[in-house]
Task: structure prediction
Amino acid sequence: MARKRTERMTKKTPKKPKYKRQVRKKEMPLYAYVEERAKRIAREIASHIRESTLDEGGIIFVHGPHYSGKTSVGCGLDESIDPLRRFVRGQPRADDRPDVLEGFFYKRKDGSKCPAISFSTKREIEQLFDEHEIVVMDYVQFIPYELQSFFLRELDDFVERGGWFIALGLLFNSLRNEFLLSFVIRQKAVKEYKLTTTCQQCGRRNATLTQRLVDGRPPNFEDPELVPPSDKVVYEPRCEDCHVVIT
Ligand SMILES: [Zn+2]
Result:
């Protein structure tokens, strides 16, 4: 018996991203409304695409803070999308971010995932758009600066050919400024979904921003735009009233 116990104890546990998840398991039911809304939006997007003519493409931008259901929209789409259309999920490769998994969309809220193609080169962007008719992309704001102009040109050509691009991402960085690429995608979008979620400070369901906390402290406006989450750096959704940036 004793030997058996030792074997169990030394068994390797699967590697998990090293950062604090803000929503604890017992709090998940509080976000049921976010999941319900994500399913409805996925169905709405699918029917919008179904009702368009084959040569008519467009951009749909779904944006909101952490835990607002963006990734759930992306993971739920294949249930409603016409199976005959060439559909793919994509996301920028982000080796330094434990919250962006290679080859998967990762739902921060519950740690679940669904398959996606990660890219980090112009060739990979080209393939994603050339080989598919519907592309849903998570973390659009993390597309590296040096790929952004190429990405936008490929995106324009794709839409021109009748492709549908569903962008999922943050509109605002945690310093409360708009991500440049998100701003441009928003300008080009034919449809926009502004998601909100529960503010982790006051509990109202009107959080539109993401609060960065480093060792529990809010950021200074001079801080970098992107800081990967870690055991010291956490992000949580907050409403405009509760969001803090030190100036
Ligand atoms: Zn609040």
Notes: The mean pLDDT is 89. DSSP finds six helices and ten strands in the chain. Residues 47 and 80 are 8 Å apart (CA to CA).
